[in-house]
Structures are given as structure tokens and as C-alpha cells.
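User: My advisor asked me to double-check a structure prediction for UTP--glucose-1-phosphate uridylyltransferase before group meeting. I don't want to rely on an old file, so could you generate it fresh from this sequence?
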Amino acid sequence: MVETSAAAKPRTTRKAVIPAAGLGTRFLPATKAVPKELLPVVDKPALEYIVEESAAAGLDDVLLVTGRGKSAMVDHFDRRPDLEKSLEAKGDTVKLDAVRRSSELAAINTCRQGEPKGLGHAVLCGASHVGNEPFAVMLGDDLIDERDPILPAMLDVQARHGGIVLALLEVPREHIKRYGIVAVEQTGESGEGAHLGEIVKVSAMVEKPDPDEAPSNLAIIGRYVLPPEIFDAIRETKPGAGGEIQLTDAMAALLADGTPVHGVVFKGRRYDTGDRGDYLKAVVQLAVAREDLGPAFREWLVDYVKTELT
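Assistant: Sure, here is a fresh prediction for UTP--glucose-1-phosphate uridylyltransferase from the sequence you gave:
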């Protein structure tokens, strides 16, 4: 049985873990030499959006769980004195600020996942860095619009209730088999802002169920706040769906042992960059929202769509 300290006083969350060791096979051949996390979404790598979100929520100690051939991810957050000097000489302050910004967002740490054994195993790789404190897990395929932040609300729920806090999203029936799905109980609480729905208590969870057997259509998306007890739970978790060590299974074990699990229902803007079609949609949506690119790009896009549909 996994030991739990559900009754203990909640601890302050300061660190974020970003699993980024996947092979990115859905984007081959683009990801043969370039990590999928560095594919540009407009003019910034997807990974930079995630680190920005972490830092904006006050989590400026970030651990990247990487794999073979992914050192470029760490390089992206390093200083580039040669490039900075060149931009400074040209007087290009806009690009200079952008280049420096990535190296100033957070303290970037790394560890290696020797082989891909699932999300649970990737999270476990961060155990020594995280230590005995709660932490956030942020998946790089899920971009949350900076105008609709969910992580601060999740951190607040964890500070008040302890245990596990999940980001939840209502998904269509045909998408249920892609996600971990939860059963919930109402708490009467809700998040602040139109982009946040109810705060619910999770009573059960299952990884990638058949739609006919799913307890709801509320899916776990790529934001978690976890207690350090999750590491022992993962160590005791056997391979599950897909033959991998599933984080959902480890969280379910803690839930069964009495750890409180809450969810914050998300109703805001989220961009899935893990699928090629959705990646293209994310680029278009974020480009349209940009003050510098949006007006001209939107005008072109409207004309293009009209031409293509006639």
C-alpha cells in the first residue's frame, strides 16, 4: 500500500516538471533532428510557451525530462553572447530582447529518461530534483493561452486542500479513448473568470477507457499539481495501457489510499500541438491573436478562405 500524508499541512509549490523525452514520431521527418518541443508556434518554440506559463504562475524552477538527441532544448534557454552581440550591433532591440528573454524566464534544470516507459516513468525521473514538496507537471503538447491561465487556480486549490489537482476538460465522446477520464462530485466551488468552470472532487479515474465504460466525458489534460507521494506510487505501478507506466494509474492508487484529488474544469483557449492538424490550427489561432501580425494576417486569411471556397 502507498503511504500518503493527505492530512499533512499543504506545502508550497515552487517547481515544475516538463516531460520532453518523446520521439515526436507524428511529426517526422521534421523531428528527425529537431525535438518536437522546439517546433515553432508562430515564432517561438512550443516549449518556450510552456516555460513562460510556468514562470507566470510563480514556478521558476523548471526541470526538463529529456532524452537522446534533445540537448537543443536546453541550449534554447542558454545565453548566446555571440548572437546577442550581433543583434546589439545592428540595433535590433526587438529580437535582442526576445533572445535574452528565453534565458531569463526560469532556472532550467535537466535529467535524462533513458528509455520511453510512459508518462509515469518520465515524472519519476524528476524525483531527486523535486524532493519532498508538491510540484506541477506540464505537458508540452498542451498550450494554454496566456489570457486564460489555469495553473494559478490549480496551485491555489492544492494549497488549500493538498493532494492532487488536475486540469479537466469536457471532450466529445469520440475523443474519450485518448485521455484519462474521471468521475467527479460537485463541491459548489468554481474558479475565477469565464475560462474556469467548477472545482470538483475526483472520485475515480481510468486511463483511456472505452466510451461505453467511461465514468464521464471529463478528461485530464496536460496540467497536474502533484504531492511528492506520487513518486512511491509510480514505483509500485505496473505497466498499464500501451504497456507503459501510466501516471493516471499511480494517481488512482493514491486516491484509493485516501489522498484528496480535485479538478479544475477548463473552459478557456487551449491549443493541441501534438497532432499535425491541430498544430496548424494553433499556429493560425495564435498568429491571428498577435497585435503585430494579427491584423494583416487575418485580412489575408479571410481573402484566402473566400478564394478557396468559391
